[in-house]
Structures are given as C-alpha cells and as structure tokens.
Amino acid sequence: MEARERELKLLALLLQYPDAAFREALPELAEAARGLPDAAGREALQAGVEALAALPPLELAARYTAAFDLSPSTTLDMTHHLWGDSEQRAAVLARLERAYRGAGYARANGELPDFLPLMLEFLAVCPQAPDREFVWSCLEGLKTLGPRLAQEAPVYAALLARVEALRPPSATAQPLEEGGRHEPRG
Known about the structure:
This protein has 186 residues and is mainly α. The protein is 61% helix and 0% strand.
C-alpha cells in the first residue's frame, strides 16, 4: 500500500465511532501514524490519535456523537452536504454502490455508501478503481463540514482538513449521468 493510501486508511479508522475496539487499536494507529513519510500527514494524524487517546471512553463517545450524529449539517454522510435528502443524492448513492461493486469492494458494515470512513477505506484499498475520481468528487462537502466542526470538535476538524488536503484538485462535484451539475448545499 502506497503512503497516500496508508494515510487514507488511517483517517478512515480514526473517523470511525470510538467503541472498545477503536480504543484498543489506538496504540497501533499511533504507531502507523508515526510511520507516515509525509511530515504534514504524520503530524496531523499523530496529534489526532493523541487527542482521541487522551479522552475517557464515555467522553470520547459523547464527543463523536455530538460532532457527527446530532445534526445533518455535520453528518459523515458526505453526499448529504452536496445534495441534501433529494433524488439527486439517491442517484449518487446508487452510483457509489455501483462503483464499489465494480471495483470488487465489499462493504463490511451497514452504513450508507457515502459514509466518510467507508469512502476513505475504499479509496485506500482500491487505488486503481475506475470510478475513483467520482468517489473523490463526493467528498466536496468537506469544504463546509470541517469549518462547522472547528469550534465544537477541533480534533475531528483537523482530521477532516487532512482528508481535504489529500483530495485531488480535480475532484469537484461531478454531474450525474442523468442531469446537470449540482452545487453544494450551504
């Protein structure tokens, strides 16, 4: 796995719900972050791991829930930030599912195909996927999500900023096959 894909995989893991398995994996994640060759990525992920590890388990779970589960404006369901709960979003979710299947990627959990950790894992483990650029384009909502979290959940905002830094410049919201360009929601 290349350095960029390793960093994406670590970000996917760090943005998962912090259950007992997550907390047990933090030392391993810290070690993996220390091994990243890119200084900016290494520093950002090490700081993220340290901040998450410093919190008691119940507080960590409460902060994650407050950050991502209580408001649609900060959900980790990325296409919601671009298309809300619309038919366009439903079409994008279906296209994401086709992209995953087409690359031979089997989702292990019951999350929607636009769940950020799932998307990052896909990008990490399927670097040659034909629809990779489309998946990246669905992450355009990071531009609004990160700043929304900056005050209440700075550790998560910093991790999202790192994802945004890894996003290719060409990965902007793409038109759907059936229709025109859809601008991100504010």
